[in-house]
Amino acid sequence: MSKQEKHNKNEECVKVVVRCRPLNPKEKEDGRTQVVFVNPQRGEISVTNPKGDQAEAPKVFTFDSTFEPEVEQETVYKNTAYPIVESVLEGYNGTIFAYGQTGTGKTHTMEGKDEPKHLRGIIPRTFDHIFRSIKGTPNVQFLVRVSFLELYNEEIRDLLQKNIKKLELREKPGSGVYVKDLSTFMIQDQEELREKLLHGRENRAVGATQMNQDSSRSHSIFSITIERCDIVNGESHIRVGKLNLVDLAGSERQSKTQATGSRLKEAININQSLTTLGNVISSLIDPKATHVPYRDSKLTRLLQDSLGGNTKTVMVANVGPADFNFDETISTLRYAHRAKSIQNHAKINEDPKDAMIRQFQEEIAKLKQQLASSVDKDGNIVMEAEVIQVEKVITINDDEKVKLLQQKLEQEKSEVEKKYQSEVKKIEEDKKLQEKEKQQLLQQLMDKEEREQKQREQQEKLLKKLQKMQEKVIQGDEIMQKALEKERELNKAQQELQQRKDRERQIAEQIKKNEDLALEINQKYRSQAEEAQDKTKRIKALVGRLKQIEGENRELNDFYGSEIEQLQERRRDLQKELKLKNLILEYFIPEKELERLQLRAIYNEELDEWMYPFIHLAGNLIRNSEERKEQEQEMKFQEDVEEILKLEEEGHPNVFFVYTEEGPIREDDIDPEQRKKKAVAQARKQSAKKRPTSKPGQSATSKRPLSGVKNSNNSSTVTADSDNYPKAKGLQPKK
Ligand SMILES: Nc1ncnc2c1ncn2[C@@H]1O[C@H](COP(=O)(O)OP(=O)(O)OP(=O)(O)O)[C@@H](O)[C@H]1O
Q1: Which range of residues forms the domain containing residue 597?
Q2: At which of 441, 475, 509 does a domain end?
Q3: How many whole angstroms separate alpha carbon 652 and alpha carbon 601?
Q4: Count of CB atoms within 10 A of residue 643's CB?
Q5: Distance 22 CA to ligand 1 centre (A)
Q6: Angular region, 88: left φ>0, alpha ψ -120 to 50, beta rest
Q7: What is the DSSP string of 278-347?
Q8: Does 278 contact ligand 1 (Cβ within 6 A)?
Q9: Is the C-beta atom of 241 inside 6 A of ligand 1?
């Protein structure tokens, strides 16, 4: 099979399903009408325009699956998440994300209610599914890890940590985008996973209150990584699958939420990630597109692999049934419809270099070896001095021996205690011994006891570590295997039945289409009146269709119009910001220096940031040095002096200017002799714990009296008086 064929074989489209929730009590009370109707057999959803005239036909969309308001959570799980979780257990990456307007049931679909159990959503059902499968897979070792993050206003927060520290995105060639310092926890069963979900939810609510935000305006990603190690022909074979469970922020267009001022800006920012998600989807399905704007938002960077990458993805689009949501419902369905055409190419992640299960296995083997080498064949502890002799007779890596050792340790502890007491007694009773001798013996005995105690403690520590590590590696058994096989067979049969039904549906549709066509061709009119009647009917239907298309065009124009408006607003903001930066650069940074700085800057692809070598020696960072730890500063002091001196020779980015009659001059060019002193002083400043803080905007140069510019400690200050004004570029009044 060629590489291209292999690649095509892995290709599969993003699966898109739509779920409509029931009318809620408030909507019923308000007398709202239902305009959304679902036909799960045909995978269709139709929406009637409440403002359209009677001739306007409902808009019909077809998806991989559609779910009616009454659908059970279990049915949703079986049809959406089940196959993805099965794939993740095999070593594929999987993503399930919920999209839709606020209040349409995204959280209900993803999380549901804890009790009663039948209301549990996709995430808790995933937990049970994973551990049921693991327990039913004997002879395979598994390691499960979890992380939970929130993305709000383009900032990432760890939901499994109490502090609301912002986290950064990083990119590693080969392994893709990851969140630096995001905490990950090893999990042993579904209860632990549930605890993490609850913990994250609590932190999300607390964080939302602290930041005066509403959780429905943030996105959350709950990630479960499953590593498995199978033994194939005596060799270990590792596979790693990662499952992302994503609850997106409400997709409603923010201009409709009546937010104003800073709230609107924040809302636009939040929507920006969803707009970018939409743009990414559009680019992925547009054969002419040459660029996919993943980098335009953190959300799309995090979901990069899920859209067009190495992941099996399911999108659950949620809609409300009521008339007043018509516009948003149509917008959600269009968004979802576009996503249907995205092609992913998922493959099993085999033997990744950084698999944690391999590190665990190696560490466990090492611990077992250490422990086994310190016991003899009967499980007796061998003291250090005797190890060499004993190592010859024992077999390393003996599980039985480790168990034996555990029992022996307990037993020996009490025996030694007794022995020690009796020996002390014996010595004390021995009247013939001189006091000195007695003391010596006692001391020897105590030393021996201390050595043995240390050895025992060491072994206990190793045992505990070994037990802990072994607990993390989970393994199934044969009893559960039978039940799991039955369950899988049943699900497979159900899926096959569904596929057969789909095929039959498609064939029936095709037959009907052909029949209609044949009827049309063969139609013979018995009278002119009949022909006129029939043609009028057809014209009416065509007019209805025309009106529907016109309506759709208007809606599309409105939809894209408001998207463009938002993008333009963002562009205006960015331009304003750019103008400010340009103004500062133009008037306060001399052109030559700017050029030098631009030349020195290096773009770091991995961090997606511009950087300077030795940036820690640049002015702004030096001012922050007081926050650094004293210890770190001391160590760096000598290093910094040397660096500064070295950089002084080459020209470094930490440049201060003196504005003189001749224009801006590098401060250090004035007195070369002072340069050396300054380097030491500068490094000292870095290492000094306390340092007078400069006010924001006050540059390091403002502490020195400069020609024409006086420090605030001196009575004279800078005025706009042109006589006092130096002719340096930065301080010249603008003509
Ligand atoms: N299919 C459903 N059946 C019954 N109740 C539902 C269904 N979907 C949603 N609900 C109820 O509707 C309300 C809103 O749902 P939910 O909080 O899941 O919406 P959401 O889309 O996550 O909103 P947000 O974007 O604000 O987080 C909840 O009370 C939920 O229990």
Answers
A1: 591-731
A2: 475
A3: 11
A4: 17
A5: 10
A6: alpha
A7: HHHHHHHH-TT-----GGG-HHHHHTGGGTTSSSEEEEEEEE--BGGGHHHHHHHHHHHHHHTT-EEE--
A8: no
A9: no
- The set of residues, in sequence order, having a beta carbon less than 8 Å from that of 355 and lying 6+ positions away, is 227, 238, 240
227 touches 240 (CB < 8 A): yes
Mutate to test the pocket of ligand 1, among 108, 273, 318 (most ligand atoms within 8 A of CB): 108
Residue 201 in domain:
yes
In a domain, 351, yes or no: no
Beta bridge partners of 657: 666
| Six-digit token string for 258 | 């009546």
Question: Is 156 within the bounds of a domain?
Answer: yes
User: What is the C-alpha radius of gyration for the chain, rounded to an integer number of angstroms?
Assistant: 36
DSSP string, 419-481: HHHHHHHHHHH-TTS-HHHHHHHHHHHHHHHHHHHHHHHHHHHHHHHHHHHHHHSEE--HHHH
C-beta of 21 in contact with ligand 1 (< 6 A) = yes
Ligand 1, atom nearest to 102 Cα: 25
pLDDT at 289: 78
CATH of the domain at 44: 3.40.850.10
pLDDT in tens, 612-668: 877 766 656 555 555 555 556 555 655 665 565 555 555 544 445 555 555 555 555
- Regarding the beta carbon of 105 and ligand 1, being less than 6 Å apart is answered yes
pLDDT at residue 433, as a whole number: 61
Residue 711 CB contacts under 8 Å (≥ 6 apart), including other chains: 702, 703, 704, 705
The answer on 83 and 196 residing in a single domain is yes
Q: Report residues of the chain scoring pLDDT below 70.
A: 1-10, 55, 164, 174-175, 206-216, 252-271, 374-402, 405, 431-434, 476-480, 520-526, 563, 606-608, 616-680, 682-735
Q: Is the CB of residue 22 below 6 angstroms from any atom belonging to ligand 1?
A: yes
Residue 104 Cβ inside 6 Å of ligand 1? The answer reads yes
Structure tokens at 718: 């800078």
Tell how strand 94-100 and strand 235-247 pair up.
parallel
Contacts of 418 (CB under 8 A, 6+ apart): none
Residue 616 lies in a domain: yes
* DSSP-assigned beta bridge partners for residue 179: 169
Residue pair 386/373 in contact by the 8 Å Cβ criterion: no
313 lines ligand 1 (CB under 6 A): no
- State if residue 619 touches ligand 1 by the CB under 6 angstroms criterion: no
Strand partners, 345: 11
Q: Is 106 in the pocket of ligand 1 (CB under 6 A)?
A: yes
Q: Report the distance separating Cα 22 and Cα 659, nearest Å.
A: 71
Number of domains making up the chain:
3
The minimum-distance atom of ligand 1 relative to the CA of 248 is 25
Nearest to 121 by CA among 113, 129, 131: 113
Q: How much distance in Å is there from the Cα of 212 to the middle of ligand 1?
A: 22
Q: How far is the CA of 104 from the centre of ligand 1 (A)?
A: 5
Q: Are residues 286 and 370 in the same domain?
A: no
Are 338 and 362 members of one domain? no
CA 68-69-70 angle, to 5 degrees, is 90
200 C-beta closer than 6 A to ligand 1: no
Contacts of 297 (CB under 8 A, 6+ apart): 154, 272, 273, 276, 277
